Structures are given as C-alpha cells and as structure tokens.
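Entry 14. Structure prediction run on the chain below.
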Amino acid sequence: MTPLTVAIIGRPNVGKSTLFNRLAGRRLAIVHDRPGVTRDRRFADGRLGDMPLRIVDTAGLEEAPADALETRMRLQTERALAEADVALMLIDARVGVTPMDAHFAQVLRESPTPVILVANKCEGGAGEAGLYESFGLGLGDPVPLSAEHGEGLAMLYEALLPHEAALKERRAAEGLDVDAAARVGDGDALPEDLEARAAAGADDDVEEEPEDPGKPLNLAIVGRPNTGKSTLVNRLLGEDRLLTGPEAGVTRDAITVDWEHAGRRIRLVDTAGMRRKGRVTESLEKLSVADTLNAIRLAEVVVLMMDADMVMDRQDLTIARMVVEEGRALVLAVNKWDAAADRSATLQRLRDRLQTSLAQVRGIPYVTISGLTGRNLDRLMDTVLETHAIWNRRISTGRLNRWLLAATEEHPPPMGKHGRRIRLRYMTQAKARPPTFAAFCSRPEDLPDSYVRYLVNGMRDAFGFEGVPVRLYLRKSENPYARH
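Output returned:
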C-alpha cells in the first residue's frame, strides 16, 4: 500500500525528532535538549499499527532575518509541508501555547496541506492545561500524546485514518498501483566452513558478487566541517535538498536521500563534519560524530571530501583510516578545485600522503571536483561505480590457487621457528564486500607480516584489487594423521 506522507512540524524543542524516531521504530534522528538540533529534512519509512507511513522530520519553525541560517531552515520545512499528504503540528503541552505557536498556526491554517494538531508531552497529566489551551489555535481537536513514552498513538492513528482513505481515493482516481515493492535485505555473512566453500567454488576467472538489482548503492559523503559535503549532494541531485551556508557545521546528523545515476539507484548519505577527537567536547557534537561513524559502517562506498587548500591533513587521514578499517570502498574528492591556490603542489602532497600514510590500501582513487560549479562530478560518480565493482569482485578458487602456486614458487615462504619451511597449501575467497581471503598453511603463527603483505600486494596486481581494502586471514591446515 502506498504510504501516507506525514510531515512533523512545530517550533524548536517540542519533540518532533522524538516522535519521528517513535514512528520510524528506531533511533534515526538525533534527540537533544538543545533547541534547533534538526536542520535538514529527514525521511524515513515507518508504521503506526497497520498503517504504512513516510515520515518527514523538519527543523523548528522560527522567525529570523532573510539571510540567517534559521530562515534557510524554515524554507526546508515549508517545502516538506508542501510535499506532505498531512502535517502534524506539535506543541509542548507542558509549556502551553506560545506566541510562536499561535503565529505558525495562522500560517498553517492558510496552507492547502491538512494539519493535525498534536499536544506532545502530555504524560502524567502535566500537560493538561496546555492541551485545553491548544483548542484555541483553530486547527481542530488536538491529539494528546507522549512521543517519549509512546502514549496516545492510538488516538493519532484514528486522526490519520481519514487522510489515508483520501490518499487511497486519489491514487485510485489517478490509476496508480498502490502496492509497494518489498525490500530485500543484505546477507553478507562470512561462511563458517571455508574448506567446503573452497571445494564448491566455481572455476570461472573473475566475477562480481551478485547483487539484488533493486537494491540501491549506499554512498556516504564524509569529511571535516565546511568542506562542501552538502553542496556536493545538492549539485548531484540538481536541487537545494540540503541546508548549506558559509557557517561550519551546518549539518548535524546523517541525512539519507534516494537518487538515481546512469540508471543505478543510489542512496546518498550526507553526514556531519568530523573534527579532531580532542576538539569534540559538547554532547551534541558527540552524537553527530556517532551518527557519521554509523553512516560509514552502513555504507558500501565512502567519498571523503577534502578542501583543495588543506588536502590530506591529519584529520583527513584519520577519517580515511576509519573507512579502510571498516572495510568500505574509499574515493577521495578534492573539492573547491576551481579556487585552489597551487594545484600541482596539492596533487603532489596528496600522492605523498597516500604513499606514506595509507600504503596498506594501494591505489586509492582521487578526483578533483568543484561541488559549487559541478566540475568533474560525472567523473566522480564513474569512479564511485568502478570502485564499487572492484569492492564486489570475486575470484574463483581455481584461479586463486594457480596464482598462489606461482607466487610461492617465485618467493617461497620463510623458515619457521623449528627450522621447517612454512607451506601454504591453498587459498579461497571467503567473501567480497570487501574482498576477504583465507589461506591455509602449516604454521600460520610463524608467517611474518612482510610475507602477508607480499601476498596481498600480489593479489592486487594479479586480480585488479587496486584502491579497496583486501583482507587475508591465515588458517592452520588440519593434519590428517594427527588423530591416528
């Protein structure tokens, strides 16, 4: 069934994000006591009983000068209101109706979008006075609710039922299919029996890991504050979907936007800027950083945005190492290239830092771009798709072991502690995403790290694993005579 699009609006700190998380069934939006935490529109699929919902969390409604950040936040909220099937206007029943509530209620009465008034924080009878006071806003009977404790959701369901029925009628009149396609999850577990996997492996040369064709590519945009992450996403989308501005740290939580590029579905995730750990002291910024780290863990490809005049500084390297350690595919985007002071020096510094500080992932791709003008964005996306394909690559067991035999003959493993040469018997690819291999040898504890690096670099050259993390685990081969 086509979900009902519900925009949650109201002044700052009335519990919009708490209700958003409640309806979504999980913590997606950052919740904090400080007013104005939410700045961008955030979408999520949710459910209230048997009613599917498309929920939109919005910034708090505030009056501000035309060039202020709060005004740009309000424009995002007004756009969400225009696109919604129904709006929930929240007030804080414990505080009562404020002049700002009354002002924006007047604005909503003139909007063509139907509005349901919700008196939040009504638990324990503390908001009873504010609940009765809200009748005077002229938005109909208020729904008493406690988003934090989940009270009053049945009444909210009843209030939404007429709007769901109206949506069905509109869809039927337009002749649209109201059945939504089910989503398929990602099963990417490491096989328990690696030897059985090796025996069952096909003898094809190279293949890409099969994917659900309807599943979008998860692409996270990360970086230090004010490197142009939201500007890049807006330019890719072709609209001012995300809040931008000269202020550092405009984005506070990870915002997901569905998009399509060259026929490929992509889920773009814009994240909050990550400062050096020692400078992050406020609890709100810690929540923003945690949201960004979670976005990296859930991503398949991560684009690290860097300022052309401060390329690959200490924090950039820290973020890049986080991405590599999580096993994500990494693409570097050198932004603001149109305003770079010394382009040749910037590229030389980038290459030197990659060679000295990220040598464990050889060949990380980088693209010089301008999010503001759109320079090289097609090339950036082509690089993202190419890197994602390498990250999904699988090598057949037959070809892998032919390569292993040649590699060990060219450079045999060293002697072990007891004077016996270590023998590498065979190798198999346990999984892709990232490419993960298991090598079975006689004494894995004696094989030095330098030889493991030799094997990993050899696989990069032989099978084209440049620029993505490659994991190699050593397993001890079972002695068939040990039990007799």
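Residues 32-37, 176-204, 245-249 have pLDDT under 50 and may be disordered.
Filed with the rest of this week's runs.
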